Amino acid sequence: xxxxxxxxxAVGAVDLxxxxxxxxxxxxxxxxxxxxxxxxxxxxxxxxxxxxVAVAAIWTWVVPEQGPARAGLxxxxxxxxxxxxxxxxxxxxxxxxxxxxLWASYRPGDAVSADVVVLVIGCLVFLxxxxxxxxxxxxRSEMGTRENPDETVAPTLKGGxxxxxxxxxxxxxxxxxxxxxxxxxxxxxxxxxxxxxISRDGDGGDRAEYFLIGSLxxxxxxLAAAFLVSWGIAPG
Length: 236
What we know:
The two termini are 13 Å apart. Helix 4 (74-89) runs parallel beside helix 9, helix 7 packs antiparallel against helix 8 (180-199) and helix 7 (160-177) runs parallel beside helix 9. The chain has nine helices and no strands. The radius of gyration is 19 Å and the shape is globular. Helix content is 75%, strand content 0%. It is mostly helical. It has helices spanning 2-20, 25-42, 46-62, 74-89, 97-106, 114-143, 160-177, 180-199, 206-233.
């Protein structure tokens, strides 16, 4: 489980840094990688931390910020399979490493281990900006470009970069809480808010298709993260 958490945390942190930092990225990436490995060492998971950093480095190459993804949705599928495999092969430990011992001394309940905390944090960080990257890949793969090869359909609907992460975090949290009625309300509210923009769509239906693809991919990412955590904390 700790490997899955570190994996998602590394990939999510890289995408966040790419959005927040424009200059001296190499230094920021190096510092982040060192910090991740140090945390992994404190959790007695150095190998998992090093592998997570390596996967994050590959992710930055195959999932660029601009332009089409080099490998389509394959990196996303492989990352999901790797995270699921980590949860299955390496279940949570009661007191992993020094940090795990410290957490065990102050944790709020016996059912919450340090491994679970890292997995939840990793999922949350991944859903912020990496979730946007996954949605962009899906949109570019499915809808292609307009007459201008550098212009996609993304500008037709505004606010997606902010609404998407908030929506994914809400769906993730509500799914873990079992509040399925509230999830339905959140999804319905988004459709209502977007309806005026979608209703102005032309004959091509670009806005409606963009909304449906982006929303469905975003929801699937949040639900998959929630199910991953639920799977990890389920009794063996």
